[in-house]
Specification:
This protein is 63% helix and 8% strand. It has two domains: 72 residues, Arc Repressor Mutant, subunit A, CATH 1.10.10.10; 122 residues, GntR ligand-binding domain-like (Four Helix Bundle (Hemerythrin (Met), subunit A)), CATH 1.20.120. The protein has ten helices and five strands. Helix 4 crosses helix 8. By secondary structure, it is mainly alpha-helical. A three-stranded antiparallel beta sheet has the order 1-3-2. A two-stranded antiparallel ribbon has the order 4-5.
Amino acid sequence: MAGSKVYIEIVKQLRKMINADGLKSGDKIPSERELSERLNVGRSSVREALRALELLGLIETRRGEGTFIKDFQNHQLVQLLSTFILQDEKAQLDVFETKCMIEMDSLRLFIKKVNKESLESLKEYLSSDMIEDGDFFNQIVKMADNHLLYKIWVILKDYCQAQGSEQTKSYKEDYADLLKGLERNDEEKTLSAYRELRKLSTDL
């Protein structure tokens, strides 16, 4: 490893090490000296890699305590990137459309994998008058049981929220037809109700 690529390689190795050690949010990571020895690289390179991760909000250094993994579900990287990436309307529309496509595919998967427990969980959530749209679809996408789709959806949802284009609160009546379609395992009715909820054309 040489030049400016050194710290990028160290970041990759750090990630593997964190996974191998089973470290999670709030856990302390090894010191610079320990990392230098484990990864067999210079301490200055380790320091550069840690600084990059800290700037991204993935770790935090506490004076006198050490360096800890942050809860990166709540870090500001998405909001920061969206400031630069999603400035034109076409890019914003692409993000919204992709998010909708994932939600529709998740509804299809949900219907195929649906069980009584999943439906009861949704019905219970929809029993309140006001619904948090993000929370509702978080359940749908998670229950679709495709980890990659879920990860992508969360990022796109965060982009939409950062741009102020994310639908937040809705009335439970808006989801009634959607729930009926899911209860009947009726894909056509479910997707029709989804398009109505999102005010989409039939082309999507």
